[in-house]
């Protein structure tokens, strides 16, 4: 059973790479830049001067790190505690559903009093 999954994973990965290469070779960028792209130094100076932008970047970085941490801990749990990696998809779907439910119905957004 594992060899069947392994075979189809390789086949689909190769097909994806071929299609990606075809897409890459067949498209051309037609954007004319009016202003030169700012250097890294200018971008870092902008971050230093713009506190809301800096906080937004830090927040996005924290969300990204927490997403990777939750995924890694979930994979560890299904692999070593439950001994069934097939449950990883189920666990991710349940987590996603709970997050969406909590955001829309459970916690609200603070507008209940209005």
From TrEMBL:
Transmembrane portions of the chain: 6-24, 53-79, 85-101
Alphabetical keyword list: Membrane, Transmembrane, Transmembrane helix
Protein's name according to its UniProt entry: Glucuronide transporter
Organism: Escherichia coli
């Amino acid at each position: 059973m594992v060899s069947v999954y392994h075979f189809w994973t390789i086949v689909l990965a190769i097909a994806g790479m071929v299609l990606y290469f075809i897409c890459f070779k067949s498209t051309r960028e037609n954007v004319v830049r009016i202003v030169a792209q700012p250097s890294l130094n200018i971008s870092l100076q902008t971050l230093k001067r713009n506190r809301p932008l800096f906080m937004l970047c830090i927040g996005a970085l924290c969300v990204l790190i927490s997403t990777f941490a939750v995924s890694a801990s979930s994979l560890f749990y299904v692999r070593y505690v439950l001994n069934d990696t097939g449950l990883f998809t189920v666990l991710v779907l349940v987590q996603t559903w709970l997050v969406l439910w909590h955001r829309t119905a459970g916690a609200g957004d603070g507008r209940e009093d209005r």
